Structure formats: structure tokens, C-alpha cells
């Protein structure tokens, strides 16, 4: 398997969404349900090489299938060994192999089926964290798998519950920055920062600590300033999203 070619293929990918406010994203909140709606938050209808782990996974999925048509490419939700390490966390990446890992099944979520997949020791391809490694040496974990050619449906909008962080990307120090709804805060939105293998630290959006930490990181500082100035729209309607973007 051409690991050097796969490494070159994902080298241009960048994990991060610090430009989402440039896309006209609307932020709505419902104090009753304690939820925030970000719309649009994703660009699943395009092939971005900068974005969330799910977006990068799908772009790489298409590109690997086009460049290496003899490979099997399996889409995965699971855990990586540094940041998204708990079963409740979901990180998206790929398993690449020379044969079907799933014995013709469309989707696998049961632990027995997962064990059969990883026992074949496929290649982990993670465009978000620039990882190419055999599964047995990777520290990754598979929770759900979707076979090549099978459909997955997505929405560009994202509903986020109170206290749940949604990752925005990595800073220059290798920390993940999260946007986190907090209905105990007058600003509704907080920022969380997570170092590798540590729990996230929480900061109010107007905290001067953020200005100090990111004073040499203009991309993130610009995002924080735009977010501080962004008008949040209150609504009492129930939030819902339509998954009308299909990747197969």
C-alpha cells in the first residue's frame, strides 16, 4: 500500500473552522431547551480541505477512491489517542485496506463486528491530525464503520446542547479550541481549550486571558473578536436539522 502517496495526499488538509463566521453563519439560541443552532456550520456539499474532522474525512474519502481505485476506504467514527479519547467523543477518520473490511455489510456498530474489522489491521488515515499508521500501532478506536459506497446523510447546520463543546480546530501550540454553549453565562457562548491528553479548560468569551493566549495567533484572535461582536438571535422554536447532503 502506498503510504507515502497517502501521506502526500492528506498533507494539504487543515483541521480547523476559524473562518466559519465569514460564511454568514447565524447563531440562534433557545433558553428553554438550552440549545444553540449554528447555521451553516459545515460545508458537506463541497470538498473542503480545511474544516471539521467529518468534512476532511469525506473529502479524503472521495480523493483516495479517485486516486487509488483498488483500495477499499471505510469511513469511521471513533476515538484518537490524544484528544477525543472517550466513547462519548466522536472523531472521524478513515481505514484504508486492499480488501473489504466489512464482508459486504453496509454499516457496523456492534462490538463483535468492530473487532472483526480491526483484527485485519487496516491502515488508519486521519487527515485532521495527519496520521498514517497501521491500526495496531495507532492507538485509535473504532465505534462505528460505514462501508465504501454506502450512503451517509449530513446537514450543514449543527445543534449544540448546553455544556457540550464543538471543536473548531487546533491552535499553533497543538491545543484544540472549542465553542461551548453555556446558558449560565451572560454571553451564552464560552471558549474551551484542551491540551493533548488533558480535560478542556473553560473561558468566558470576554475573558482577557483569551486575548493574551492568542495575541500571536491572528487567525484565532480574529475569530474570537468576530464572535464577541456577533449578534445571537433568541428564539422559542424547537431546533431541527435536515440531513439532505448525501455522501456515498
Descriptive report:
- The chain has helices at about 5-10, 55-65, 110-120, 210-215, 220-230; strands spanning about 15, 25-30, 35-40, 50, 70-80, 90-95, 105-110, 125, 130-135, 140-145, 150-155, 160, 165-170, 175-180, 190-195, 200-205, 230-235, 245.
- By secondary structure, the chain is α+β, with helices and mostly antiparallel strands.
**How far is the N terminus from the C terminus?**
23 Å
Strand order of the largest sheet: 7-10-5-6-8-9
Strand content: 25-35%
Cα-atom Rg, whole angstroms?
Answer: 19 Å
Which series of helices and strands comes N to C? HEEEEHEEEHEEEEEEEEEHHEE
Task: Enumerate how many helices there are, as a single number.
Answer: 5
Give the class from helix and strand content and strand pairing: alpha+beta
Helix content: 10-25%
Total strands: the figure is: 18
Query: Largest sheet, if any?
Result: 6 strands, antiparallel
Q: Which residues form runs of ≥5 with pLDDT under 50?
A: none
Average pLDDT value?
Answer: 95
* Tally of distinct domains: 2
Shape, principal axes of CA atoms: globular
Question: Mind sketching the topology for me?
Answer:
Blueprint: H1 3-10, E1 14-15, E2 26-30, E3 35-39, E4 50-51, H2 53-67, E5 72-79, E6 91-97, E7 107-108, H3 111-118, E8 123-126, E9 131-134, E10 141-146, E11 152-154, E12 158-161, E13 166-170, E14 176-181, E15 189-194, E16 201-204, H4 208-213, H5 218-229, E17 232-234, E18 245-247
Parallel strand pairs: 1-4, 2-17
Antiparallel strand pairs: 2-3, 3-12, 5-6, 5-10, 6-8, 7-10, 8-9, 11-18, 13-14, 14-15, 15-16
